[in-house]
Structures are given as C-alpha cells and as structure tokens.
Amino acid sequence: MSEGKVEKEHLVFGGVDVVDLAERYGTPVYVTDENELRTNFRSYKSAFETANTDTDIYYAVKANGNLALLRILASEGAGADVFSGGELHLAKSAGIPVDKILFNGNSKSEEELREAVESNVKVSVDSLDELQTLSAIAVEMRKEPEIAIRVNPDVSPAVHQKIATGLRESKFGIPFYETVAACEEAKRLSNILLTGIHCHIGSQILDLRVFREATGKMMNLVEELYEKGIELEFVDLGGGLGIGHSKEEKEIAPTPKDLAEVILPTFEAKMQSLGINPKLILEPGRSIVGPASILVSKVNTVKQAYKNFVAIDAGFNLFIRPAMYDAYHEVVVANKLKDQDSVLCTAVGPVCESGDIIAKDRMLPVVKRGDLVAILDAGAYGFSMSSQYNGRPRCAEVLVCDGKVDLIRRKESVEDLIRNQEIPKRLK
Ligand code: LLP
C-alpha cells in the first residue's frame, strides 16, 4: 500500500476515508485501490519493454480472482496464469484473451485438460504421464494444443518453505535432467505443439539472485533444445517477486525494474548468441495485487491478560497468511492514525484456534471496542484463500478509485453457508 496517508485522524485509501467506508459497507471488508493496481501492472510492462525482448505479463489469478480486478488487468493488456478450471473460467469471464492464458497445474483432471484444449489455451505440462493423457485427449478432440513443459529447475530461494516451488523435492514440474527428453517426447507426439518451457521458483522472493540462476538454467535448456532442432516460441519464468511488508522491508524490496535487470541480460545474451527471438512470459501475482488492497476490520473487544489482546472481526477465515506462513503484515488503527503507538498488543481474529493471530506483539495506539484495524498489503492470497470456517460467511470487497467507491463482491450471508447442502430425506 503506497497511498494511505494521515488526513485528520483517518486512513484515506484510494481517495476514500476508510472510516466512512466501514460505516457504509460494514466490516470486515477488502478494499482495493484501482490506481495502485494499474500502476503495479504498468511497472512490469515498462520494466520489461526493451528493444530486443517481447514480454507478456500473465497475471497469476490465484493471487486474487475478483472479476473486477481481472477486468482492470485485462484492460491493461494482461494475460493470465490459471491453475484450475475455475480460474480459467474467471479469466475468460473477465475477457482475458485465450491466446494469453496458460493453464498450469500439477494435478489437472481429465475434465480440466479437456476444458483447456476446448478453450484453445496453452497448457503447462507437469509430468510425462500428463503429456500422454493430453496427447490422447487432443487426438480424440481433433485439436492441436500448444504446450509448455513445466521445468523443475532445482533452485532454492530464501523464502518460507511452504512457498518455495522450484526445489528438487517440490511437487511441481519435470526434473531438470529429464526436461530435454520430455520436450523430445512432446515433439514426437501427434497433435501436440510444443512451443515453450516454463518454471516458477517460489513466491515472496526478495533476494533476486535466485532469478538469475533460474534464468541461466532455463536459457541453457533453450540452447540445448535449439541444438536438437527444437526452437521455442516462449520462455515463461513464472512469478515470485516479493513485496515489502514492514517499513524497513519496503525500503529494500526489489521492483519489477530490478527483476528486469536480473533476468534480461541473461535472456537477451542467449537470444543473441543463438539468433532466436522467443517471447518472455512472466506470471506475477503478489507484486501486482498485494499492495493494492487492505482488509478493514473492527475491534470486537480488547482484553488485558498475560498479553494485551485486540480481538478483531477478521481472522484466518479471511486472511490466512500470518497463520499459514508466519507472514508479517503491517496493521494500523484506521480511525486513530495520529495517536501515539503506546501499547504492545497482539491482534487476533474471531476463529476458534490459538493460531488465529493476525499481528503479533505490535505497538499500537490505545485501542477500544469499535475502533477499526486495517491490515495492509492484503490483496494477494487474502480473499482468494478465505473460507467459511467457524460458520463465518465471507466478507464484501469494494473497489476505490480517486474517491469513488464500487462494491465488487457482496458479502455472503448465513444462507450461503447452507446453500449447497442437503439433509437426506430420512433425517428430516
Ligand atoms: N505462477 C505459478 C505457476 C505459481 O505457482 C504462482 C504462485 C505464481 C505464478 C505467482 O507467484 P507470485 O508472483 O504471486 O509470488 N499463498 C502463498 C503464495 C503461494 C504461491 C503459489 N504460486 C502466500 O500467501 O504467500
């Protein structure tokens, strides 16, 4: 979040007073700033626009699949990385062109493979077994899907172990040493059009050296394939750029431009030496939507026990990152921005689990019931990982832009908790 600023006592986000927003839409509520979203996407476009390289940005829909946000990104020229039939549906519904969609996944059902082929999107093939299945489906459907081979490049980013995806022991991709054979096999198969290779090494990466390593390995693979007569149309290096969460981290967090400076020299050097011109694809999620949203919650109660607890109405049902990855997210008291941070508090959610901690041991102003706590940089893997755990309907989402507000998802009701459930006749 870059725009929040002190105006009176209240947090202002996207030109809108967050206290007014909370009154109008209730809490909890996710709030996304359209300008920030556009700016973040454009910073990728401009960082990777060079005379020599043609780059496409395939936004990772898993980070936040709200249709309004996808629509905005589509209008900026985004493609999409989708990881399920559901995400494919979201991307297509938002108007993202099918020739800019890559269907990823380590465990795609036959039905999903058929949907991908039917929709004419590219498929990132994660195993030799999947390659054979896809080929059989393609023959049967009389189609010729474009594919990429998902490569496991065996690199170790310094991130939480649950979000490192290119480790040797990760479940994603074909082992590096088998990828040439996999590509040759893809070439042999009828009705399969091998056009790219793909990797994604992890998420929330702040030390970019690992991108240099992965790019080097992928471009060496491009060369090896070229020497075997296989020329690729694209190389997809995935997403993973981290964002700053604390004030200190924000000062050092790398930007898309820094990422471009790490990736492009290796990419372009190989292009030149081989005299080829593949497209570069990137799949950022977090760095585009993460800083563009806040989650606004209300304080239900405060308690002085062995610790000072501030119990808010949003827990890991709506925002699981702190509980699942020990993630740090800044919190501010949105109606008391000018008050001195004077009390050490732990902000906890309403879920019946000890791990439902949103912000541990933070200095906050004196907080009381009814105050508003905003969780910052909550746009990525926030709503998209939410649940109805503990019988809590999911919250609303709103979009703000230069002082205007639009509801972009109604909050669920208790009816939504029972909507698809059936009580067998014999129990009635
Ligand atoms: N492409 C692929 C194939 C991916 O698996 C992912 C994320 C991305 C792109 C986007 O990565 P990003 O730019 O957002 O780092 N829920 C976790 C993050 C899981 C990421 C999974 N894959 C979290 O909240 O930290």
Description:
With 428 residues, this protein is α/β, with parallel strands linked by helices. It has helices at 18-25, 34-48, 67-75, 85-93, 110-119, 128-141, 179-188, 209-227, 247-252, 256-274, 286-289, 321-325, 414-418; strands at 5-7, 10-13, 16-17, 29-33, 55-60, 79-82, 101-103, 122-125, 146-152, 174-175, 193-198, 234-236, 279-282, 293-304, 308-312, 331-333, 343-348, 357-364, 372-375, 396-401, 404-409. Strands 4, 14, 15, 16, 17, 18, 19, 20 and 21 form a nine-stranded mixed sheet that branches. Helix 8 packs parallel to helix 10 (256-274). The radius of gyration is 23 Å and the shape is globular. The model has no long low-confidence stretch (mean pLDDT 95). The structure holds ligand LLP. Residues 60, 62-63, 81, 104, 163, 165, 200, 203-204, 238-241, 283-287, 321, 325, 380-381 line the site of ligand LLP.
The radius of gyration is 23 Å
Looking at the chains present, what oligomeric state does this protein adopt?
Answer: single chain
Name the shape in a single word: globular
What structural class is derived from the secondary structure elements? alpha/beta
The total beta strand count reads 21
Number of helices: 13
- Our measurement of the CA-to-CA distance between the termini, rounded to an integer number of angstroms, reads 51 Å
What small molecules accompany the polymer chains?
A: ligand LLP
Helix residue percentage: 25-40%
β-strand amount: 15-25%
